[in-house]
Specification:
Blueprint: E1 9-19, E2 54-61, E3 72-73, E4 76-78, H1 88-91, H2 115-118, H3 130-146, E5 151-153, H4 175-187, H5 191-199, E6 201-203, E7 209-215, E8 227-236, E9 249-255, H6 257-265, H7 273-282, H8 288-299, E10 305-306, E11 309-312, E12 317-320, E13 341-342, E14 356-362, E15 365-370
Parallel strand pairs: 1-8, 7-10, 11-13
Antiparallel strand pairs: 1-2, 1-4, 2-3, 2-9, 5-6, 7-8, 11-12, 12-14, 14-15
Helix pairs in contact: 6-7
Length: about 400
């Protein structure tokens, strides 16, 4: 836990995708871009919900929440000092001598890694690497908020922790015992360590694949609401039993990525920009097996930190992301300023050569516009075409 951070609070979240028994309708007419290629998202549509064989978990935050009240979000939350506790060495004792606790080595050069992963936690007093601790955080927060316990038995050998198949849900634990432990963990996160010791299990960090790193933009949620969040993705064999905590979380919803995006578009629910972007990106993979394979292989490439920069226009606003031609050369990474960029031009009048932006005409009218090549072998989002689309002229590219 990096207590030296002045403006940021570190957090972790996980995109949970779980298989359904529904047989997807395959659309063989869709154009598919090559792995890591550039997709012209203005000509792509979200797949129909019938094409998906999995659903994604979203949790609705309480209206009393100080951050994004009533928003539907992925499970996750702030990292706790207990996530970096040396007591985890006993829980992961079979991995003490394994490089990166058996997670695999990320190819990305250390100097370009996001600080949330690159920071030397040993210098901060913890023997637990950030790549492990933030996965523990994501597993713990998922258990607290939804009752879903993503663990594996301690006695399984090392090769069983990195199977190419979908992650299972362990059903051997008594329901009442888990409810007891969940209450204890909600009261004090350190109890998560005690639970794992008593149940002889380990957080399934190996099913948590690195997906991205989003930072809260300045000037939107106030000085005390700035988060540096590690995004992971986990693909489960089946939809597990889910229960909201009735405190921070008041409702849960399992739906396909396209269903969620359409519900947002029809103002049935509100999702934050990172959720909108990532769900649009998942629309490339209607089949869970493909999503799992892609996320496992791509995770070892690494990721880049994304600090959206808000640009207010005459008819809305946009969130600029790295690579966009309007993205500032020196964004306020330290969060010392509370300044929004402004222009008298409309969204359509702004330059449109190198695009990586989310445009908002209103709170529920968003479009991802991107035509640059994604880094670290990721995929660009798919953006649904409106009934009367205005196609930008990208003929200069």
């Amino acid at each position: 836990m990096n207590t030296a951070l002045k403006h940021w609070k570190e957090a972790a979240t996980v995109i949970l995708a779980a298989g359904t028994r529904r047989r997807p309708v395959v659309n063989n007419l869709k154009d598919k871009a090559p792995f890591g290629g550039v997709e012209n998202n203005s000509k792509q549509m979200w797949p129909h919900r019938s094409e998906f064989d999995y659903e994604v978990l979203l949790l609705k935050r309480s209206g009393k929440s100080g951050f994004m009240p009533n928003a539907y979000v992925f499970p996750g939350g702030l990292v706790d000092s207990s996530d970096f506790s040396s007591d985890w060495l006993q829980v992961f004792k079979s991995f003490r001598n394994s490089s990166h606790f058996g997670l695999g080595v990320v190819k990305q050069p250390h100097e370009t890694r996001p600080p949330i992963f690159a920071t030397d936690r040993a210098k901060l007093g913890s023997p637990i690497p950030g790549e492990v601790a933030f996965r523990i955080c994501a597993v713990r927060e998922t258990f607290e908020e939804s009752g879903i316990l993503l663990v594996v038995p301690q006695k399984a050998d090392e090769t069983q922790h990195q199977p190419p198949t979908l992650a299972p849900i362990v059903h051997k634990y008594d329901k009442h015992e888990l409810n007891k432990w969940r209450s204890l963990v909600l009261k004090n996160p350190v109890n998560f360590i005690d639970m794992c010791k008593e149940l002889e299990c380990m957080p399934n960090i190996w099913a948590m694949h690195e997906w991205g790193n989003w930072l809260t933009p300045t000037g939107v949620y106030g000085e005390k609401r700035r988060y540096d969040t590690a995004f992971f993705i986990c693909c489960l064999q089946e939809v597990p039993q889910t229960m909201q905590d009735e405190k921070e979380i008041i409702h849960f919803k399992w739906s396909t990525p396209s269903e969620i995006l359409q519900s947002y578009e029809s103002q049935e629910m509100w999702i934050a920009p990172p959720q909108f972007y990532e769900l649009s990106r998942m629309c490339h993979f209607p089949l869970l097996h493909d999503l799992n394979h892609f996320s496992r292989e791509r995770a070892l490439e690494g990721c880049e930190p994304w600090l959206p920069v808000r640009l207010v226009t005459s008819d809305g606003y946009m969130l600029l992301l790295p690579g966009d031609e309007l993205y500032p050369d020196n964004p306020d990474w330290m969060g010392e300023n509370q300044v929004n960029m402004t222009t008298e031009k409309s969204l359509e009048e702004l330059p449109a050569t190198a695009l990586h932006r989310i445009e908002f005409h209103s709170l529920y009218d968003a479009t991802v516009n991107v035509n640059i090549k994604p880094r670290y072998n990721h995929r660009n989002p798919i953006s649904k075409v409106s009934d009367n689309p205005v196609i930008k002229d990208n003929s200069k590219l």
